[in-house]
């Protein structure tokens, strides 16, 4: 684990850094599980609206099927040194039910509008209940920066 030069950040700085990454990054790993078929993990594009992560996937995908059976998910930004993990329950929105502002923001950010595709897609919304963030071993203690949907001080 890389620790050289790592300075331990306080919770407020971790929160700011996490919110900045959520606003600027485009890929997130989505981990779901089905009661019979077990775990499933895929990378998806995501959009952060300030309260929740919005993603889109095929309506028949394993991710969508798993979320319908078991909505609890874990999300991870793709950096193994600057770790950000989010946990929450995913809500599934067929394209005709997704809030227009969320779908418009997603289409603007990625230049792709799933509402215009022939195949059915669903939007997944995850409002995190728990967020963990750390850079290397010096930050493992205190890595929970959101608990029960509330940012920690």
TrEMBL record:
Domain Pyridoxamine 5'-phosphate oxidase N-terminal as annotated: residue spans: 23-134
Residue runs in coiled coils: none
Record keyword Amino-acid biosynthesis present: no
InterPro entries linked: F420H2_bilvrd_red/Heme_oxyg, Pyridox_Oxase_N, Split_barrel_FMN-bd
GO terms of molecular function: coenzyme F420 binding; oxidoreductase activity, acting on the CH-CH group of donors
Keyword tRNA-binding assigned: no
GO cellular component: cytosol
Any Pfam family: PNPOx_N
Residue ranges crossing the lipid bilayer per the database entry: none
Keyword terms: Oxidoreductase
Superkingdom assignment: Bacteria
Protein name (database record): Pyridoxamine 5'-phosphate oxidase
Taxonomy of the source species: Bacteria, Bacillati, Actinomycetota, Actinomycetes, Kitasatosporales
């Amino acid at each position: 684990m890389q620790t050289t030069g790592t300075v331990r950040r306080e919770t407020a700085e971790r929160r700011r850094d996490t919110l900045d990454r959520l606003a600027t990054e485009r890929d997130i790993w989505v981990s779901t599980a089905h009661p019979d078929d077990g775990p499933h993990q895929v990378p998806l594009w995501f959009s952060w609206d300030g309260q929740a992560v919005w993603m889109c996937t095929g309506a028949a995908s394993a991710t969508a099927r798993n979320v319908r059976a078991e909505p609890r998910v874990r999300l991870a930004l793709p950096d193994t040194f600057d770790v950000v993990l989010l946990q929450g329950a995913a809500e599934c929105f067929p394209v005709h039910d997704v809030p227009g502002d969320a779908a418009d923001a997603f289409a603007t950010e990625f230049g792709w509008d799933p509402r215009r595709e022939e195949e059915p897609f669903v939007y997944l919304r995850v409002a995190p209940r728990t967020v963990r963030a750390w850079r290397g071993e010096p930050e493992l203690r205190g890595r929970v920066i959101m608990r029960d949907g509330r940012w920690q001080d």
